Each structure stands twice: as structure tokens, then as C-alpha cells.
Please model this.
Amino acid sequence: MAPVAPLCLTARDEDGTLAAAIRYWPVRVGGATEALLLGPVAVHPTRQGEGLGALLIQDSLARARAGGWERVILVGDAPYYGRFGFERLSDVEMPPPTNPDRVLGIALTEGAWDGITGKVERAE
Model:
């Protein structure tokens, strides 16, 4: 499946070396609801701690919102992603062996996750 290209961003050093990247994938929740799956966010080990991951997350979420996307889901650490507005999605199920406590989402429009339940599947 192809990623959502307009949201897949990179950060490069002055010489063109890849420093960080972020990818998004189209998914469906509960069989019908469209969402974006964020991941991975990758930062080169020599560039970690510089805020590149945060920059890519913030920029790509703004682009997703501007592009009409309503919701984003990911599997990750709540303390890290919580600072961007992600919260635990207790009624959304990622395929096993995913830890349910790590399934997080953010509503890009007010109430976009309200009432959304079910399994996450790749979009057709």
C-alpha cells in the first residue's frame, strides 16, 4: 500500500544527508471510518534530541488538517505523543500483538474520534 505522499516528510542536513523522516498510511477503523496511521517517525541517532521529530510531527499534522483529514492514529508512548495532543483510544483495536495502552489518536477536527470503535485495517 502506498503512503500518503503529501504528508511523508524528511529533514536533511545541509549536505543532503537524511536526518529525520515521517510517514503516514491510510487506514479504516471499524470497517468504514477513514484515518491516518502515523509511523514511523525516525530520527538519525546523531540528530536525536534536537527536536527534529517534533518538528516533523507538528508540520505533518498541520498539513493533514489542511488537507481535510479528520483523525490520526499511532502506536507509541503516551508521554511523548501526548504533548502533541494524542490520547489513548480505548475503543480502537490495532492488530495483535499491539499493547492497547499504546494505541493513541488525535482529532484534527472537533470530536473526530467520538463514537469511533472497532479494528484498524488498511484502507483499500
